[in-house]
From TrEMBL:
GO terms for biological process: cytoskeleton organization; regulation of cell shape; regulation of transcription by RNA polymerase II. The keyword Repeat applies. WD repeats lie at residues 1-39, 40-82. GO terms for cellular component: nucleus. The lineage of its organism: Eukaryota, Metazoa, Chordata, Craniata, Vertebrata. This is BRWD1 protein.
Length: 267
């Protein structure tokens, strides 16, 4: 197998570079000389997460599809901590992303089963109200391309960034209660009846028919006296500003210096 780099990260002070290779090794390099300093052994599958500590230049975090999360001392080439993301009755969960808190006392990870894993010091009580599994209902919706090669959501035929804010669901596609739906930007001030998604039956690739969230409420907001979505308003405002900038640039170009007369150059 020809080795391939799957992820790369500099440490906090840029003295070291860590690369993740698809043979499951992590390699620590001197960023100035390019010298290989350490091979970090521990992962059993590919690694796509490398995160440096916010202020301790010795510390690097790695996580991968094997469900393992390691904290390394990259100056010594040793592992400091190891956590294995075992899910009861389902095997391990691949870890897709990790981030340190600004103070370096905590880090949070997300896995393939929709779990948010929070590690650190202190009490876990403030986090107990968070549901076990959290996905957006559009996370795994298929995409298509139109005649202009633009990406569209297959079901609604809309550009994904122009679609209404998604609903929060569990791993089986069942929507969470309305108090959690209000946590999604753009749904903060919606009435309860507009926080209930439409459920429908969808055929899977195996031919099995399952019930899941299939779309948003389609009632015209203006007819219902609702305020427009905050997210949609922001998108429209950004598009308007871009159009104005484009028009100003074109006007400046058309009114620019003629006959080769331009701003005089310094000798």
């Amino acid at each position: 197998m020809k080795p391939k780099v799957t992820m790369i990260a500099w440490n906090q002070n840029d003295n070291y570079v860590v690369t993740a290779v698809n043979n499951h090794l992590l390699k620590v390099w001197n960023s100035c000389t390019g010298q290989l300093l350490h091979d970090l052994v521990g992962h059993a599958d590919e690694v796509f997460v490398l995160e440096t500590h916010p202020f301790d230049s010795r510390i690097m975090l790695s996580a991968g599809h094997d469900g393992s999360i390691f904290i390394w001392d990259i100056t010594k080439g040793t592992k400091t901590k190891h956590y294995f993301n075992m899910i009861e009755g389902q095997g391990h969960g691949a870890v897709f992303d990790c981030k340190f808190s600004p103070d370096g006392q905590h880090f949070a990870c997300t896995d393939s089963h929709g779990h948010l894993l929070i590690f650190g010091f202190g009490c876990s009580r403030p986090y107990e109200k968070i549901p076990d599994q959290m996905f957006f209902h559009t996370d795994y919706r298929p995409l298509i391309r139109d005649s202009n090669n633009f990406v569209l959501d297959e079901q609604t035929q809309q550009a994904p960034h122009l679609m209404p804010p998604p609903f929060l669901v569990d791993v089986d596609g069942n929507p969470h209660p309305t108090k959690y739906q209000r946590l999604v930007p753009g749904r903060e001030n919606c009435a309860d009846e507009h926080l209930i998604p439409q459920l429908g039956y969808v055929a899977t690739s195996d031919g099995e028919v399952v019930e899941q969230v299939i779309g948003q409420q389609t009632v015209d907001q203006e007819e219902q006296g609702m305020e427009p979505s905050i997210l949609d308003g922001m998108i429209r405002q950004l598009q308007l500003e871009q159009d104005q900038r484009t028009g100003a640039d074109q006007e400046a170009a058309s009114n620019g210096p003629q006959n080769g007369e331009g701003t005089p150059r310094r000798g």
